[in-house]
């Protein structure tokens, strides 16, 4: 059946095969996150193997994030010009090859270069995958699928923790980078079965020049989103990347226990993304973000200053419920604020420029922790994380409050 909405013909009939399209974005982002977070669990192992300091391995995380805008621009423009499916297949194949090569790295410079190249693939996937997923999702379920898509990130983190517990001891660190090959093949196959986005067919741009023209016309809104996403990346990576090392260094918790704890708090992250995305259909996108960050602020004492494993576990679980609750809104929010003929590039580029701007948030926290040492002379991770993230919470709440939203916008 066709209905008239604002002078445009919009199909209410279910799009055949769109379940494949939605699944491809969720599966791919899970795999992408897994491939990123394996390095988080290999900091000590890789530092020992390559005979470098731990800070050099942490640097590769920042290098990956810094290159993500390149991928977002390259693959996003391809998606706006030529459709969502083929660029999505290409980017999954690309970053899978880089992962295999990362597991074959012979020395630290080679590994660093490969992680830079991996950043292009990681940055290229999110914008294209989010546009295909949300353009295929029913409008009334857009918040839910936004949460499911973004939930792929903590799910990838959780699976990396599982791999650190099961694969690393049995087959070594190289196998950690090869574990995603089968999921990558499945993702490519599911994407191949997906129909092309109907929204793209309606709004495709005639040339690459047209993409830059649209971006310039929306430059103020784009700048606002880049600033918001910069702070959102500081929120997620500031509460995730150094936390396993914080537990081992400050609380002397064994690596095996840390891996299990990471699995536990990423369950909270999954619940947060799905809950936050779903709640945004009722509360609105901005209000859902603000409520999620309110929870984060409340649990700082448990998350950063807990003196027992149980308290730290509860704090980490609730912190990730709040952090990822805010993130669960982002795919839908960004796609609704994007120009219709620029949806493959606009959300992903804003997101990845935010990643680039906040690429070294973990290193900055580590430096501050070294500067503000505890009474016994060890780095003060707890105080540093609490202060930095409190500022980040407040800044995002202010930006969300003064911003706009287009919840339920017709694609």
In short:
The protein is mostly helical and 411 residues long. It is built from 20 helices and two strands.
User: Regarding CATH, which class?
Assistant: Mainly Alpha
The percentage of residues in β strands lies in under 5%
Give start-end ranges of low-pLDDT stretches: 1-14
Q: Remind me, CATH topology?
A: Growth Hormone, Chain: A
Number of strand elements: 2
Q: Describe the oligomeric state of these chains in a short phrase.
A: single chain
Q: Sketch the topology as an H/E string, one letter per element.
A: EEHHHHHHHHHHHHHHHHHHHH
Full CATH superfamily name? MFS general substrate transporter like domains
CATH architecture: Up-down Bundle
What are the main properties of this structure?
411 residues, mainly alpha, Growth Hormone, Chain: A, two-stranded antiparallel sheet, 20 helices, 2 strands, 78% helix, disordered N terminus
Describe what this molecule looks like in 3D.
With 411 residues, the protein is mainly α. 78% of the residues lie in helices and 2% in strands. The chain has helices at residues 18-37, 43-50, 54-82, 85-102, 108-136, 142-171, 173-178, 181-193, 198-203, 208-217, 219-240, 243-251, 255-283, 285-298, 300-305, 309-327, 330-337, 346-357, 361-371, 381-402, and strands spanning 2-5, 8-11. Strands 1-2 form a two-stranded antiparallel sheet. Helix 1 runs antiparallel to helix 5 (108-136), helix 1 (18-37) runs antiparallel to helix 8 and helix 13 (255-283) packs parallel to helix 16.
